[in-house]
Each structure stands twice: as structure tokens, then as C-alpha cells.
Design a protein that fits this description.
It is built from 26 helices and 22 strands. By secondary structure, it is α+β, with helices and mostly antiparallel strands. Strand 4 and strand 5 form a beta hairpin. The longest helix has about 35 residues.
């Protein structure tokens, strides 16, 4: 029956049959739906149209408004030109399932007087009732699609909360029903385990990457087809493994969210990572992992703290500064920055300059880092020292048990390369020799596989030649641990290792400067919750490398009786060094005197020296040197003794005082001192001359 809504002006124009299915899966498998939609051509013929155009460009495209539909846009364009008398679809939901496209189509059909046809009836948009009905159907179609989506997502999320939603498996895992299982390839398993071991050992994902690149080791990656391939590693490969909880045996879902935004030209969809507390599911020990959950979390937090932000310390670097990233200003709360100075750029200096650099605020505090590092180092050695022997024993045991990881990885590569070469040979051997088109290609593949075997064998040979067997005695580790300070201060100890030890036991150090007392105040927050305050005298610039004040005072006294050569020998005999740690020479003593304005030693012109050493002073008093030294040590006579293993210095004026005469008289009255002749004593023998 022909509807009265179809007029001759409609039949004079052509009709368009719009065919659409939402996905490629529906196009391939829902063949009956496609057949029913194409059968609408017969209905249009029955209604009186002779010219019918079928638009099926949008097969496999959704009508929800998220994708571009070239066929729908072409249909609307022809309607706008007034060339279409009717647009038809099996159901009106095939046209659009979003209000924007649906209302656009209805409005254009109303303007140019085009009817809409489905399997049930004919709609004339110029009729108010039909327009109302079409509006309701469009809203219902949009709501139906949204309802179906919500039901699907609810079922998906519920399955994820049970830990049974397995969408895809990352490299190192395979899907086994509703759970993950480790890849059966032992080469893949050991390569991923090696990644976590190296990150934990070196303390940084970047350092682990450099180790893999240094030894030319490949890592597995999963391609778009799901197959595992071996490639040169990059930072993203290692970092994704560390951040993914699946490698710690944990099921996780809902880690990301889709955020749509308009950039002025088009709607852009971005994927952002959600906070861990907002994840839909996080179930530890859901399957077998490559490391334990606790170990995976420790590695993840360690790598996250390597980012040099306000909340994290940053990764340990090669610089000598021990507290880089640990110091925080007590006045403004910002982290102190570090820079190196000196001719060799090895003298650290900590300063709080972020407020000045970012906002133009006044500078807070700044101080040299050598004395601060020494103080923290001393406190650290006191804490760590008792456990050094136990740590050395554990390290020695681990050293014995550890295999050569590089050689093991190369051995696995060689085994895989030999398998590939053997497989290529079997394929070549099974081919018909007369078919040169096939055997030529198989022979090239075989040769390529053999070249790969030779390449890996050469790597193993070079590694064995470069590896030097350890000759260290395991018992020496315990000996070194007993003197942990010498191990710590040796120049060969890696600065990054020392910083990692510091960050293991120290959470943060709050720094301030007491201007009145001229002191640096450090509040050490230990990891265990204990706080220690350390106060250090604030040095002027260059004061660390200056000569000790005790040495300068000793030189001031030694120049009274000795020249520069003798002074240098006395200082060296007492184990004293310059500010730079060098031995004393005549030139260095001369430079020290000149810098501090100390007069040079000059013998008296008349031979009467105002200052005497022990031997000359004893000779002047006519007593034994030991007698005079004992008296000076007892404080009976005033004397100078600058250094423990050095000379005594006596003033000639002091040697003529009453205490000096008392020492002389006591020495002469001693039974061990030979008595001289008394002037009043008479001789029993007459003179023979």
C-alpha cells in the first residue's frame, strides 16, 4: 500500500538506501542483517521509486558520533541539494544514534521536503506528528545505545573486580583463559628477571639500560601480531616493566582513563594515567610473577624517587657531594641546590636559590659542602660500622653464588640462534632442489641464521677474553669490613654507591645557619625516626684548604730558634701536612710565614741569642739537658714546647731569674752531681811547687 505522504514530487527525485553496520565483526558474521538492509530496495520499488541509490560506505562504522562517516555525509549533502525524494533504512537507528547527526538529517529533510522510509512506515518531517515521532525515536535510539554501553561496561568492570578480565598479555606472559601465565620460553623469562635484578643492583632504570647497551644484550618485546621479538632495549622498555604490576604477580585493571578535549580545530582524545587509589582492581598474588610484590614495589618506588622533584631525592650521580638531593632549607622548605667549584670542579657548595631564581625572593642560606659532608659521613660510619662485617659476609656469599649474567644471556642467545639455523636448514633440506625459486630463498635464510650464530659466538669469545677471573681472597672482605672507614674513603669507591647507602639510612637533612654563633645547623632525620642535630663552625671561603691554626702557632714559636729548613723537618716529623695534604718543604714554610707575617729567624749579631733551645739553655745553666727538661715539664721554669715531637724553647731572660738559679742549685746539691772545692777548705798537703 502506497502511503499518502508520498507525493509525485517525491517520486520524481531519486531515493537513497542507507546501509550500515556498527563493526567489522558484524559485517563479517551478521550476514542476515546485511541482507535485510539491502532488501529495503524492494520496498522502495514498491513505493514507486525507480531510481534508487545504495550508499554502503559506512559498513563497519558506528553511528554514535565518535567516527567520521563519509557515506552519511554524502547522503546529507545530496538531500541539501534537493536531489533526493526519500532516504530509507531498515531501522531509523541506522541513520544515527546521536542527536547531532539525527536532528541535522531531520531538519534538512523538512526544508527540502524529503521523506524518511523504514520497514514499518513513511515519515514526513513537515508533519508535526511525524517530526515529534522522529525526535522521540532518535532520543530512544541514543538512549538505547548508551544503555547497552553501560550494561557492557558494568559486566566488564565486574569481571575485572574478580580478576578474570584478561584483555591482552604483555611481553613475558601469555593468556591462559581468565588468568596470566609466564611465557614458556625460558630465554624470555631469564631476560625479564635480569632486568629487575639489574635495576635493583644499579639503583636506576637508566643505569640498567646503559648496562644492557654496554654488553650488547637484547630484550624481548611483543609486536602488534602478538609475537615476541628481540630488539635493542630503550628506556621506555625497561620503565614499562618496572611500572607494570603484572610482573610482581599482581592483577591490575583501570590504570588509565580517556579524557576528551577540544583544541580549537577538532576533538582530541587523550589517555591519562590514574592514581593508584583510583584503579578499578589491584589484586596482589593473583598469578606467578617474575619478582615478589614487595620487591616489585620497592623497585618501583626507588625508580620513582630518582626523579629530582621536591618530594624525591633524585638519582645518585657521579659527583662527590654526599648530600645531593637530601638537604632542605629550614627557612623556606625548598630543597638546596648543588654546584661544584674549584680548579677541578670538585668542591661542592649547597645553596637555597630556588626562591630567588623562580620568584626573585631573597637568597636564604648557602655554605660549603666539604665540612658538612665530612660531618654526615662521620655520623653515618658510626651507625653503619657495626653491621659492616655482617654485610661483607652476605656480599661474599652472594658473590660466590652469582653467575656470570652476561655470559648466561649470551649463551641463551646462542641457543636460540642455533635453533633458528637448524630450523632453516630443515626447511632448506625438505625443499625440492629443482625448484630454485624456493630453495634460493631458503638458502639465503639459512645463511642469515648461520651468520647470526657466528656473531653470537664471537660475542661470547670476546666476553671471555675480556673477563678477568677474580683473585681476591674471600676472607679479605671481612678484614676490610672491620675497617669500614678505609673502604669508604678509598678513591676507588663509587660515589653513587656511597650516596645509595646514605639514602638508605637518612631520610632528609634540614639545614640552617645560626648567624650569631657562626654555625651551620643540621637536623638529620634518620629512616628509623630518630633525629640528630649537628652544629658545625661556619668556615670562610677557602678555609678548608688553609693551614691549621695549630700549625701556624707552632711555626710562630719555632722561628725563634730554627730556620725554615729545620721547621719543615720538625713539622714532617710530627706528621703535619699543609692545607692541601702535602708534606712541608722550606719553600712552603717560607710561603706560610710570608702570608701570615711571621718574621724569619736571624742569628744575633753579637752572638747572644734571646731564645735558646734545650741544649743551649742547659749549657748556659751548667746543668744536664734532662734536668732542665724535667723542670720545664713540671712547670718550675717557663718554656715553650710547640710540638710533642719537637724542641723546647727557652728565653734567655727567664734563665737568669730565681727559678732558674734554684734549678741549678738543686742540681749541684744532688748526690749524683760531683761537688767542687770549697774556697775555705784547707789542704792537708803542702804545695810541691
Amino acid at each position: 500500500m502506497i502511503s499518502d505522504k508520498i507525493r509525485p514530487q517525491h517520486l520524481e527525485r531519486k531515493a537513497i538506501l542507507y546501509v550500515r553496520q556498527s563493526s567489522a565483526h558484524q559485517v563479517l558474521h551478521n550476514r542476515e542483517s546485511s541482507a535485510l538492509q539491502y532488501a529495503m530496495r524492494d520496498r522502495l520499488t514498491t513505493l514507486g521509486w525507480s531510481e534508487i541509490e545504495v550508499i554502503d560506505d559506512d559498513l563497519g562504522r558506528s553511528a554514535a558520533g565518535g567516527v567520521q562517516r563519509a557515506g552519511f555525509e554524502r547522503m546529507v549533502a545530496q538531500v541539501c541539494l534537493g536531489k533526493v525524494g526519500a532516504v530509507a533504512a531498515r531501522e531509523v537507528s541506522r541513520f544515527a544514534r546521536n542527536s547531532r547527526d539525527w536532528q541535522q538529517l531531520i531538519e534538512m529533510c523538512r526544508v527540502v521536503d524529503t521523506v524518511l522510509v523504514d520497514q514499518e512506515t513513511v515519515y514526513a518531517p513537515r508533519h508535526g506528528n511525524d517530526r515529534l515521532l522522529l525526535g522521540l525515536k532518535g532520543s530512544l535510539n541514543e538512549y538505547e545505545l548508551d544503555l547497552l554501553r553501560q550494561r557492557s561496561l558494568a559486566a566488564r568492570y565486574e569481571k575485572a573486580r574478580r580478576g578474570e578480565l584478561v584483555v591482552s598479555a604483555p611481553v613475558g606472559f601469555v593468556k591462559a583463559g581468565d588468568r596470566y601465565e609466564k611465557d614458556p620460553d625460558r630465554r624470555v623469562q631469564e631476560a625479564i628477571s635480569l632486568v629487575f635484578d639489574k635495576v635493583l643492583e644499579l639503583g636506576s632504570a637508566r643505569q640498567a639500560l646503559l648496562w644492557f647497551l654496554e654488553h650488547n644484550l637484547d630484550l624481548p618485546v611483543k609486536g602488534k601480531d602478538g609475537e615476541t621479538a628481540w630488539r635493542r632495549p630503550n628506556y621506555a622498555t625497561i620503565h614499562r616493566m618496572i611500572e607494570n604490576p603484572i610482573y610482581g604477580g599482581t592483577y591490575a585493571y583501570g590504570k588509565t582513563a580517556v579524557a576528551a578535549g577540544y583544541d580549537g580545530t577538532d576533538v582530541k582524545v587523550k589517555i591519562r594515567r590514574k592514581a593508584r587509589s583510583d584503579w578499578l582492581a589491584l589484586m596482589p598474588n593473583a598469578h606467578e610473577g617474575y619478582v615478589s610484590w614487595d620487591k616489585a614495589e620497592a623497585i618501583r618506588k626507588m625508580v620513582s624517587s630518582n626523579v629530582p622533584t621536591s618530594r624525591h631525592h633524585g638519582a645518585p650521580k657521579h659527583g662527590d657531594a654526599l648530600l645531593a638531593g637530601l638537604l632542605r632549607c629550614r627557612r623556606c622548605g625548598r630543597k638546596l641546590t648543588l654546584r661544584y667549584s674549584g680548579a677541578q670542579h670538585h668542591i661542592p657548595r649547597y645553596s637555597c636559590t630556588r626562591g630567588w631564581m623562580d620568584n626573585g625572593e631573597p637568597r636564604c642560606i648557602a655554605f660549603g659542602g666539604l665540612r658538612v659532608d665530612d660531618a654526615i659521613e662521620g655520623a653515618l660510619l658510626t651507625v653503619v660500622g657495626p653491621g659492616a662485617i655482617a654485610a661483607a659476609v652476605a656480599a661474599e656469599k652472594e658473590t660466590r653464588q652469582r653467575r656470570d649474567q652476561v655470559r648466561e644471556a649470551l649463551r641463551r642467545d646462542l641457543e636460540a640462534a642455533r635453533y633458528a639455523a637448524d630450523r632453516a636448514f630443515r626447511q632448506y633440506d625438505a625443499a625440492d632442489p629443482a625448484n630454485r625459486l624456493v630453495t634460493g630463498e631458503l638458502e639465503a635464510r639459512w645463511n642469515k641464521a648461520l651468520a647470526r650464530v657466528a656473531e653470537v659466538e664471537a660475542k661470547i669469545t670476546g666476553h671471555d677474553a675480556a673477563t678477568v677471573p677474580s683473585t681476591a681472597d674471600p676472607a679479605s672482605f671481612a678484614t676490610l669490613a672491620a675497617d669500614f672507614k678505609s673502604v669508604w674513603t678509598t678513591p676507588t669507591t663509587d660515589a653513587r654507591l656511597k650516596k645509595r647507602i646514605v639514602r638508605t639510612v637518612i631520610h632528609e637533612v634540614i639545614a640552617d645557619i645560626d648567624t650569631d654563633a657562626a654555625e651551620i645547623v643540621l637536623l638529620v632525620h634518620w629512616v628509623g625516626g630518630v633525629h640528630t642535630e649537628i652544629r658545625l663552625p661556619r668556615r670562610r671561603r677557602g678555609q678548608r684548604t688553609s693551614t691549621s691554626a695549630d700549625v701556624i702557632a707552632a711555626v710562630r714559636q719555632l722561628v725563634l730558634i730554627a730556620n725554615d729548613d729545620l721547621i719543615a723537618g720538625i713539622l714532617n716529623r710530627n706528621g703535619l701536612v699543609t692545607g692541601y695534604g702535602n708534606r712541608w718543604t722550606r719553600e712552603r714554610v717560607t710561603s706560610l710565614r710570608s702570608h701570615h707575617g711571621i718574621a724569619v729567624h736571624k742569628p744575633a749579631d753579637d752572638g747572644i741569642e734571646p731564645w735558646l733551645n734545650l741544649n743551649n739553655a742547659a749549657r748556659l745553666l751548667r746543668v744536664a739537658p734532662r734536668t732542665l727538661r724535667v723542670a720545664a715539664e713540671a712547670g718550675e721554669i717557663e718554656a715553650l714546647h710547640p710540638l710533642p715531637d719537637g724542641p723546647w724553647v727557652f728565653s734567655r731572660a727567664v734563665l737568669s731569674t730565681a727559678p732558674a738559679r734554684a734549678i741549678t742549685e738543686r742540681a749541684r746539691q744532688s748526690p749524683r752531681h760531683p761537688a767542687g772545692l770549697h774556697p775555705d777548705q784547707q789542704s792537708l798537703f803542702s804545695s810541691m811547687t
